Amino acid sequence: MGIFSFGNNYIGIDLGTSNILVAVKNKKIVFNEPSVVAINKESGNVIAIGKEAKEMVGKNPDEIEVIQPLKNGVIADYLATEKMIKIILKKVNRKHMIKNPKVIVGIPTGITEVEERALQKVFFNAGAKEVYLIEEPTAAAIGANLQVSEPTGSIIVDIGGGTTEVAVISLNGIVATTSIKVAGDTLDDVIVNYLKRELNIIIGKNTAERIKKEVGTVLITDEEEQSTTACGRDVATGLPKTVKITSKHIQEAIMESVLEIVESIKITLEKTPPEISADLGEKGIYLSGGGALIKNLDKLITYKTEMPVFIAENALECVVNGTMRIFDDIDSWKSVLISTKK
After folding, report:
1. pLDDT digits over 104-116, tens only?
2. What per-residue confidence (pLDDT) applies to 223?
């Protein structure tokens, strides 16, 4: 192992808008919870993070602020992010006996140097000795076992909570990319708006997310029609209301946003050099992230692009799994990392 070698104090992180995943070398994924923190407004103390904090969304009293401190894959609330990361790293370090960890963090493509420095500072303040950044599509492609170091092209579509990132990768570099702020959180928002407009019910984002996972689809047949119920507040009376939600409802709600994701794929393909386009036609498109699991999304993209589409194994974990693959032979991957020492 060379100058980039790591011992077992190496931590990989997918710092997502919706979820944070943490992996420790030789331990695999050790933390996977929502990117949410609850803070006492008066004292500034953290009351809860992760799942416990997310359960408070829409139910918190005035003295408790529930924050999703990351927006579109970058820091929107610096202090809340720092407090959340400190708690997570403290838990991981204590449980796995890690001191002065060296951290790899997935970042969106195209973030500014200011945003990069802010992110690195958060981890240094949380106790990291070294911080390495990697663009999320590259990490996702590595985690999906695509041959990104080969002189043939691979295309990955990483649909996270805040952004969808499409990247064509060859020889460990991004050849063409498109990033849009349409992703899982967007779909939750449009479901909330659709149900308010069409069914006269107001629901919260947690309920919208549940409905999306249970009956969400982008292509539907009579045989695939499913339904669930949603509880919320009646628009007219303000009283509690329960309605039946079908797959057709969710298809209508999310289709416009989904087509924006499809268009971002087509734009990226148009920017790809012809030599690589031939490779992509044979190898197909790979989907990662939580959005990859929307029912029939792969079929819709195949229909719109006339290319084979595959959902990566463990799609939700591709970015953090990519960091774990880097653990094993970091010298081979150092060209894809941005490194900073404290």
Report:
1. 999 888 888 888 8
2. 64
Give me the pLDDT at residue 263, please.
98
Helix 205-215 / helix 184-199 crossing angle, nearest 10 deg: 100
Check residues 225 and 83 and name the one with the higher pLDDT.
Answer: 83
Closest CA to 12 of 317, 342, 275, 335: 317
pLDDT of residue 220: 82
CA distance 224 to 251: 12
Asked if residue 138 has pLDDT above 90, the reply is yes
d(CA 22, CA 129): 17
Name the pTM for this structure. Answer: 0.92
Helices (H), 130-224: 136-143, 184-199, 205-215
Cβ proximity of 209 and 242 under 8 Å: no
Structure token pair of residue 237:
């009376």
pLDDT of residue 1: 37
Say how many CA atoms lie within 13 Å of 264 toward its Cβ. Answer: 24
* String of DSSP letters for 110-149: T--HHHHHHHHHHHHHTT-SEEEEEEHHHHHHHHTT--TT
**Beta strands per DSSP E along 289-341:** 309-311, 338-341
Nearest to 322 by CA among 188, 191, 153, 132: 132
> In the predicted model, is pLDDT for residue 73 greater than 80?
no
CB-CB contact of 92 with 30 (8 Å): yes
Mean pLDDT over each residue of the chain, to the nearest integer: 91
C-alpha count within 13 angstroms, C-beta hemisphere, residue 100: 6
The span from the CA of 74 to the CA of 179, in Å, is 13
Beta strands in the chain (DSSP E): 10-15, 19-24, 28-34, 37-40, 46-49, 64-67, 70-71, 74-75, 102-107, 130-135, 154-159, 164-170, 173-180, 201-202, 227-234, 240-246, 285-288, 309-311, 338-341
